[in-house]
C-alpha cells in the first residue's frame, strides 16, 4: 500500500510538471492557495491562524511545490486541460475549473476556514500533507507534541490513526459520512473533510514518518449527482471550530474524560479572560497559576489538614515501630506491629489519607497542562526571553547535543526546580520528628529532580505555569514559617 501511495504521488508530480501552466492565487478566509489552472489542484496551500486577508503571520504550509499533494482522480476520460474562472460575492470566493468533460468547483468562505468542494460523480480524492505541516521536532518527552496523525471526528469523540516506520503497509479503512469529519491534524492545524450528500468509503495510509495520507474513494457511479464535500482547513481553535460544527470541537482535549474536558475548557476561558485583562499571555499564565491556587485553597487546606494528621500519627508510631523492626522478625514482628496500631486506635491504612489529599488536586493539574499544550494562542507568542511559549524556552544554544535533553539550555526548568528545592529546604512540619522531617525533605528533593527531567523538554508555557505555581507555594511556605516564628 505504501508503494501505491508513493507511485500516485510521483505520477501526480510528473503530470503536474508536464501540464503546469498558468497559476492562480486565491486568498480567502483562512487559506492562501496557489492553483495550477490546467490541473485544477493546489500546488501550494498555506493555512492562517486568523483571516489571511488581514496579513496574519502565523501560518502553516499544508502543501508546497512538489511537497504533498491533493489529487483528484476521474473515473473515466479526464478530458482536456481545465480553464479557470473566479467569481466573488460577500460570502465566498468561488473558483470554477472547467474542461470538455468535467467541472470542479472550490468555494472558499471569506469568514471561516471552510471550503465547499464540488467534484464530478465518481471522483476519488487523495490528500497527503507536505513536510511544512509537520511541527518542528522537539527533544525528549516534548516530541509528543510534534506528530501528525489521521483523525476522524464525530459527536461522540475523536478516533486517531497513527503510523510508524515499522508498519509502512498499514491501511485503516473508515466510513466518511455526513456529520463526521475525516482527515489529518498536527498539534495546532487540521485539514478535515465531511461528505455533504452521502456516505463514502475512506481510509488512512502511510507515506512516511508523520506523513499520513487520507483517501476518499467515491467509486464509479454512472449518472450520479456531483459529489458535494466540505473541507475544514485551518487552526485547531475551539472558538473557530465550534462555529463550523459541534463535532469539530471534539478534537480538543479528546483524550480526557468528559468532566476533565469541561474543566480544561474552563481553564481556557479563564486564561482568555486574564489575557484580555493584562494583554500578555505570559503574565496571563502566571495569573492563571495564582488563580488556580486561590480557587483550590479550600481543597489545599483540607489536604494539608489530612497530611498533618498523617504526620502526627506517623511521629507517634515511629519510635515503637522502629524498636519492633530492630528486635523482632517474621510473624512476631507482624503481630507486635498490629498491637501497636490497636493500642493507638489507628488503621494500618492511615497513610492513604495523605495520598487522597494529593489526588484531589490532580484534575486541576491535568486540566491546566492539557489546555496549555493544545492552546494555539500560545503558538509563536513571545514572553521575556522566550521566543515561543509553544516550545522550550531555548535560553542559550549549547556547543553539543545531549541525548533526550537536546542542544539548548532551557532556563525555566532550572528556575522551577530551584524554587521547589528552596521550598523543600524551608518547609518544616511541627508534627514530624527530626528523622521523619529529614526523610520528607529528601522525598521533596527527589520529586523536584523528577519534575526537572520530566519538564525540561516541555513547551515553555507549561513550564511557566508550574514555575509560577512553585513560586506561590514557596511564598506560602515562607509566610507560614515567619508566622510561626513570630
Detailed description of the structure:
The protein is an alpha+beta fold and 486 residues long. It folds into 2 domains: 251 residues, Beta-galactosidase, Chain A, domain 5 (Distorted Sandwich); 163 residues, no CATH class. 39% of the residues lie in helices and 25% in strands. It contains 11 helices and 20 strands. The chain has a 9-stranded antiparallel β-sheet with strand order 6-7-8-9-18-15-14-11-12, with helices on one face. A hairpin with a 2-residue loop joins strand 1 and strand 2. Helix 4 packs across helix 11. The protein is elongated, with a radius of gyration of 29 Å. The termini are far apart. The N terminus is likely disordered.
> What is the molecular shape?
elongated
**Terminal CA distance:** 75 Å
DSSP strand content: 25-35%
Biggest sheet descriptor = 9 strands, antiparallel
**CATH architecture assignment name of the largest domain:** Distorted Sandwich
- pLDDT < 50 stretches: 1-20
CATH class descriptor name of the largest domain: Mainly Beta
For the residues shown, what is the average pLDDT?
82
Helical percentage: 25-40%
Strand order of the largest sheet: 6-7-8-9-18-15-14-11-12
Number of DSSP strand runs: 20
SSE topology:
Layout: H1 2-19, E1 23-28, E2 31-36, E3 41-48, E4 59-63, E5 69-73, E6 83-88, E7 92-98, E8 103-109, E9 114-119, E10 124-128, E11 149-154, E12 157-161, E13 172-176, E14 181-185, E15 189-195, E16 200-206, E17 212-217, E18 227-235, H2 238-244, H3 258-278, H4 281-295, H5 297-327, H6 330-343, H7 352-359, H8 362-373, E19 396-402, E20 406-409, H9 411-426, H10 434-455, H11 460-485
Amino acid at each position: 500500500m505504501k508503494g501505491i501511495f508513493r507511485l500516485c504521488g510521483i505520477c501526480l508530480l510528473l503530470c503536474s510538471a508536464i501540464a503546469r501552466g498558468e497559476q492562480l492565487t486565491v486568498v480567502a478566509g483562512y487559506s492562501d492557495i496557489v492553483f495550477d489552472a490546467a490541473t485544477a489542484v493546489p500546488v501550494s496551500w498555506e493555512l492562517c491562524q486568523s483571516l489571511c486577508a488581514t496579513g496574519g503571520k502565523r501560518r502553516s504550509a499544508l502543501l508546497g511545490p512538489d511537497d504533498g499533494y491533493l489529487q483528484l482522480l476521474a473515473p473515466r476520460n479526464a478530458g482536456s486541460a481545465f480553464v479557470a474562472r473566479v467569481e466573488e460575492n460577500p460570502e465566498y470566493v468561488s473558483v470554477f475549473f472547467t474542461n470538455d468533460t468535467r467541472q470542479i468547483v472550490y468555494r472558499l468562505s471569506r469568514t471561516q476556514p471552510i471550503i465547499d468542494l464540488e467534484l464530478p460523480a465518481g471522483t476519488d480524492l487523495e490528500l497527503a500533507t507536505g513536510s511544512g505541516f509537520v511541527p518542528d521536532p522537539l527533544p525528549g518527552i516534548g516530541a509528543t507534541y510534534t506528530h501528525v496523525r489521521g483523525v476522524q471526528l464525530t459527536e461522540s469523540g475523536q478516533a486517531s490513526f497513527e503510523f510508524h516506520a515499522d508498519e509502512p503497509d498499514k491501511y485503516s479503512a473508515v466510513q466518511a459520512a455526513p456529520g463526521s469529519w475525516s482527515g489529518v491534524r498536527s498539534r495546532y492545524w487540521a485539514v478535515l473533510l465531511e461528505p455533504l450528500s452521502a456516505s463514502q468509503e475512506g481510509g488512512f495510509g502511510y507515506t512516511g514518518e508523520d506523513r499520513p495520507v487520507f483517501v476518499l474513494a467515491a467509486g464509479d457511479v454512472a449518472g450520479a449527482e456531483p459529489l458535494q464535500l466540505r473541507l475544514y482547513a485551518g487552526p485547531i481553535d475551539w472558538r473557530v471550530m465550534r462555529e463550523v460544527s459541534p463535532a469539530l470541537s471534539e478534537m480538543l482535549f479528546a483524550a480526557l474524560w468528559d468532566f476533565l474536558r469541561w474543566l480544561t475548557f474552563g481553564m481556557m476561558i479563564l486564561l482568555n479572560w486574564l489575557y484580555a485583562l493584562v494583554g500578555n499571555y505570559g503574565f496571563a499564565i502566571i495569573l492563571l497559576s495564582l488563580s488556580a491556587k486561590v480557587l483550590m485553597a479550600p481543597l489545599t487546606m483540607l489536604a494539608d489538614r489530612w497530611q498533618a494528621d498523617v504526620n502526627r500519627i506517623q511521629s507517634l508510631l515511629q519510635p515503637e515501630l522502629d524498636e519492633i523492626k530492630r528486635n523482632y522478625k517474621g510473624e512476631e514482628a507482624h503481630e507486635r506491629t498490629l498491637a501497636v496500631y490497636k493500642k493507638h486506635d489507628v488503621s494500618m491504612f492511615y497513610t492513604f489519607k495523605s495520598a487522597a489529599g494529593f489526588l484531589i488536586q490532580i484534575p486541576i493539574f491535568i486540566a491546566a497542562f492539557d489546555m496549555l499544550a493544545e492552546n494555539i494562542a500560545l503558538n509563536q507568542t513571545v514572553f521575556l526571553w522566550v521566543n515561543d511559549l509553544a516550545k522550550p524556552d531555548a535560553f542559550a544554544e549549547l556547543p553539543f547535543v545531549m541525548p533526550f535533553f537536546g542542544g539548548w539550555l532551557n532556563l525555566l526548568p532550572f528556575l522551577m526546580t530551584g524554587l521547589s528545592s528552596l521550598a523543600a529546604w524551608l518547609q518544616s512540619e511541627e508534627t514530624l520528628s527530626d528523622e521523619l522531617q529529614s526523610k520528607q525533605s529528601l522525598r521533596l528533593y527527589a520529586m523536584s529532580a523528577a519534575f526537572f527531567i520530566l519538564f525540561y523538554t516541555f513547551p515553555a508555557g507549561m513550564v511557566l505555569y508550574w514555575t509560577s505555581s512553585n513560586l506561590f507555594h514557596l511564598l506560602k511556605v515562607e509566610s507560614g514559617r515567619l508566622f510561626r516564628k513570630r
